[in-house]
# Entry
Amino acid sequence: MRATICRWAHFNAAHRLHNDNWSDEKNKAVFGKCNNPNYHGHNYELEVYLTGEIDPETGYLFDLGELKQIIVEEVEDRYDHKNLNLDCPEYKDINPSAENICIKIYELLRNRIDARYDIKVRLWETSRNSVIYPPES
Amino acid sequence: MRATICRWAHFNAAHRLHNDNWSDEKNKAVFGKCNNPNYHGHNYELEVYLTGEIDPETGYLFDLGELKQIIVEEVEDRYDHKNLNLDCPEYKDINPSAENICIKIYELLRNRIDARYDIKVRLWETSRNSVIYPPES
Amino acid sequence: MRATICRWAHFNAAHRLHNDNWSDEKNKAVFGKCNNPNYHGHNYELEVYLTGEIDPETGYLFDLGELKQIIVEEVEDRYDHKNLNLDCPEYKDINPSAENICIKIYELLRNRIDARYDIKVRLWETSRNSVIYPPES
Amino acid sequence: MRATICRWAHFNAAHRLHNDNWSDEKNKAVFGKCNNPNYHGHNYELEVYLTGEIDPETGYLFDLGELKQIIVEEVEDRYDHKNLNLDCPEYKDINPSAENICIKIYELLRNRIDARYDIKVRLWETSRNSVIYPPES
Amino acid sequence: MRATICRWAHFNAAHRLHNDNWSDEKNKAVFGKCNNPNYHGHNYELEVYLTGEIDPETGYLFDLGELKQIIVEEVEDRYDHKNLNLDCPEYKDINPSAENICIKIYELLRNRIDARYDIKVRLWETSRNSVIYPPES
Amino acid sequence: MRATICRWAHFNAAHRLHNDNWSDEKNKAVFGKCNNPNYHGHNYELEVYLTGEIDPETGYLFDLGELKQIIVEEVEDRYDHKNLNLDCPEYKDINPSAENICIKIYELLRNRIDARYDIKVRLWETSRNSVIYPPES
# Structure
């Protein structure tokens, strides 16, 4: 029997959106308040979906304690209470937009979770904006 | 890189469910309290999903300020603090059910958003009932 | 032992804010979109607080089934799927503002619940606006 | 016109995770606190999705009153305020894990809802953990 | 400077409402589904409020890490994934109603937190029902 | 007639907790992850309560459009997408802890809102932690 499970996590981080190849004027025009040179921040909320077979002996698709631990190690330890631009080298050359963070988290989890499970990640930057990866279509 | 983003919006409106071709008795039997001739109302909550390519220069799939503005112009200005039956000609011949409102909002946004983006709309009539269009299967 | 309990309820209604003694211009200036002559509506959420002694035999402050029934009879049957201006005579001479609805609900419940219980009502018109009665100070 | 609707429901139940074929030590190692022999419990929240054609005469995909009644009869009457292990024979030989409960609810609803509607169920065991069936991929 | 802080916690437990001095009929009449002899359960959500002086050197009213640890030791370790009737001797002679659990949690925290802080506890049994202690009036 | 109204707002900001008079070791021991020199951030949610008389001509306690504008000018324009330590001089000599931000917002609003209204502010730093000012007791 195949199903999908979802687990929530969260982390608080600072970031700034900026393209080093652009003038200050263009950066401000495109990114607006998100370009503030002193950073701003968010409470990011994360949904991690795993699709796979349910183990008939346990009734579990994946051990939630193990999943929680993987998310702590790969996401929370890396991003919680961090400045994504300054503390996280993966955003040295790409913007820590919600889109890019979501995809990066997918890749981090994909490396840790067995390939027989499909993964989907949904990252909420605020309660009004979120990103889903892989795409819905 | 392709992903999906989601943006929330909301509007407050009055409506009534009624089929002009039916007797009052049949209308009351089918629509119950929703048939009240003096209307009732809801706080509608809206999720708009866009699927497309992420711009590598910005890390954005779509500019959220622009998306917000499109939703204001196409949905909020049209429906917020309105009576859907009386103020909105699109519901003259079809019922302003959550299903029909959801599809209409999809069409309004589809006309404004470039075809290289896929769109999905989820409309919450109450915190217990919602509609998704296009259908999930 | 004295404590406070809280029970949620909800109802969906249409309303319009208007002062018959004022010109149309003044009504529109003061009430804005809420003055739409064709009404708009809300999903009202209601919190009812009772403060009193806990019955040592049951561990209950008040039977929740009974409280639910009182709220159904006094609030939901009266306001759910109604037009507050047209269907509810109590708003013939006063505006069905969230403030006035909240106080009216307090009075309706006060008439039904024994005086040894203190009552507080919080009415949410939207998830961003609410009213509390009696006042906090 | 084809769309998807979603309706929420909830029930409160006790359960315990245990595999009769295993030693107490193994049960405790695998299921941890969820193996407590005296049971623990949850407020389960349920999302039921139906996909199908919208009736042009009503604007409804499915009558929500009828859907609510089906969920009451098939899910709430069966599980609300119950001990899933002791009161519900369907969990005699399989664990009442969120995964297994979700699939069982799908089957119960599938038997009651016409085959021209596709069904999806999402069961929340807590606000942090949920299961979706059929699987997303 | 004096203020109030609030911290959330949660635990999942089974319970049953029953008065040993009453007949089975009276128990069933008074407690209804909550009297199920095999127990049912809830995801309890807890709000702990502390009122006191803000330390001018830290800007903290109370160290949240310490408060979290006190709640873990006094509440979560005691009640999470437990059967309140069978595993917790404090409910041997009183019903584990939300009212009684709320007051007991207040007493447990009162014993651990310095008297210069005022404490208030709000316990949610479901998202629709909660208890506050001390009482609001 | 006197009642209390509440209005929500929100802003996203970066901050860091640090006491310049302390060693790095002591700062890290006391503030932990919140002491990260590169800052982290939050989605702050704000509840503003006003208590006063209801205007019998409007049914309003306070015009919500005006209240929204005051909150935009005094709070959102000042703190949204800002670094509280670097961009906001009021936190030069005191820590931008949730407690201190909450009290500062109270003072900012108190200066703008007529003294016949009592004010209360609740600031959520995360969905699990909040501060209320003035204190509850």
About this structure: The beta strands of chain C are 2-15, 40-53, 82-83, 118-126, 129-133. DSSP finds four helices and five strands in chain C. The helical segments of chain C are 24-31, 64-79, 84-87, 98-112. The two ends of chain C are 25 Å apart (CA to CA).
